[in-house]
Amino acid sequence: MYEGIVQDLIDELGRLPGIGPKSAQRIAFHLLDADVEQVRRLADVLVTVKDTVRFCEICGNVSAEERCRICTDPRRSDEMICVVEESKDIVAIERLREFRGRYHVLGGAIDPIGGVGPNDLRIRELMARLGSGETREVILALDPNIEGEATAAYLSRLLAPMELTVTRLASGLPVGGDLDYADEMTLSRAFAGRRSV
Questions:
Q1: Smaller CB count within 10 Å for the chain: N or C?
Q2: 8 A C-beta contact, residue 138 and residue 83
């Protein structure tokens, strides 16, 4: 629609996850209207992030060092490992300030349609960590969707022979939600996870 480099910018922004054509266009025109120094700062930060940020050699979380702050924290317990799909999931759990164990980032979920199999995830690394014998419980904190369910089922079967407690985060109806808006899977989970009052 636009000429040359402006359309290239819109196209590149549109490749980002969650950015559709209209959002890409809005961001592109915001950048065009912005001060040159603001755009340079953004460009510098993007390049610096790519040059300096890496993944923790133990858990796979994003880190500026070889090991992330959670893996180097001596107050954390090795008895529990919470398995998540992405680093952003760690941030969500850490906001609760309740979990004092360690994490393991898989780097996604099993998705045969998307071409992601178990060998594409950090499952071997998880099994190596569990080989030390320090861990007593593995918490599967995976998204409650088809891919997350498939990954949880795969990991549950893989971990079954080990002397570990394998748990899954509870799921069901959100606080303030209406029954008539809940899908069948959510309602089914809510019934299965019901508890005494």
A1: C
A2: yes
